[in-house]
Amino acid sequence: MNERCDDVINCVDFSDELFCIDCPPEAWRCSSGQCIEANHRCDGYENCNDKSDESNCATCQINAWKCRTGQCIPYFQRCDGLIFCRDESDEINCKNFDILMYVFDCRFEVSL
Ligand SMILES: [Ca+2]
Ligand SMILES: [Ca+2]
After folding, report:
1. How many Å lie between the centroid of ligand 2 and the Cα of residue 88?
2. What's the CA-to-centroid distance between 80 and ligand 1, angstroms?
3. What are the residues facing 17 on neighbouring strands?
4. Which residues make Cβ contacts (< 8 Å) with residue 102, sequence separation at least 6?
């Protein structure tokens, strides 16, 4: 049972990492029960094995961009020609200049 609550999912149904109570107060708990540092929530990088830390974000942390789905991705993945949002929203409206200086990273726009 030492694989229980070790932040590694061993059971197909995540049950070995569910309901673990060893998350420190400053940690955030993934849907799977895994603990991550709270400041990794909605920072654009997937830290939970089940990616739940980047889902259903009310706001994304600075340097992250929020997909229409509530998913956060690193800001440089916005308009980079590669789809990271599950709804592809990071690659639409890329001519929008209120995206600040990041619009200059839109190298695939010239052919539009
Ligand atoms: Ca994260
Ligand atoms: Ca992208």
Report:
1. 8
2. 20
3. none
4. 75, 76, 78, 79
